[in-house]
Amino acid sequence: MRNLVYHEFPPEYHKNDTVLILGSIPSPKSREEQFYYAHPQNRFWRVLAEIFKEKLPSTIEEKKEFLKKYHIALWDVIYSCEIEKASDTSIKNVTPNNINLILEKCPIEKIFTVGKTATKLYKKYCYPNTKIESIYLPSTSPANCAIKMEQLIKEFEKIITK
Q1: Domain assignment of residue 159, yes or no
Q2: Is this model's pTM higher than 0.90 or not?
Q3: For the chain, how many structural domains are there in total?
Q4: pLDDT 10s digits, 106-120
Q5: Is residue 62 domain-resident?
Q6: Distance of CA 33 to CAs 39, 55, 76, 111, 137, Å?
């Protein structure tokens, strides 16, 4: 059964951010924790720590400081939708977030979308307004176990701006 779900916490960004990473919509665990990629089996934070050669951030404050240090903004493509648990493939009746809210405040150079659903929905709902192509990154979700950690690290290295 699908439930109507809303994005319940704000985007995470700072005025000097140059990279914007967009997921689809927060998982039940992330909504519970009120922060991004909170499921303990999600590899997002482990991948970022690895590519930047940093200690794994564990608290929300450490994660916010990590993002600020590396000029990374986080948000999601979807403001609200009908979804079954955390299954992106079940998403229906999407209302997108206004991504331009971040683009107007930050010197974003690259936009990355995490997972096929976020990429597809960004192209459909956000690209017509932003006119910035997104760069696909594989999902770090525990459900995407076909992608090994080494491959995720290699793919996510694209976010490192020189």
Answers
A1: no
A2: yes
A3: 1
A4: 999 999 999 999 999
A5: yes
A6: 9, 21, 16, 25, 24
On whether residue 161 sits in a domain, the answer given is no
| Full domain range(s) for residue 46 | 3-154
Q: How far apart are the first and last CA of the chain?
A: 45
Token pair, residue 83, equals 């979804």
**Distances from the Cα of 135 to the Cαs of 21, 22, 111, 118, 144, in angstroms?**
9, 10, 6, 11, 18
User: Would residue 97 count as lying in a domain?
Assistant: yes
Q: Which tokens go with 16?
A: 């000097």
Q: What is the CATH number of the domain that holds 47?
A: 3.40.470.10
Catalytic residues: 42
Q: SS3 for 36-100, per residue?
A: CCCCCCCCHHHHHHHHCCCCCCCCHHHHHHHHHHCCEEEEECEEEEEEECCEEEEEEEEEECCCH
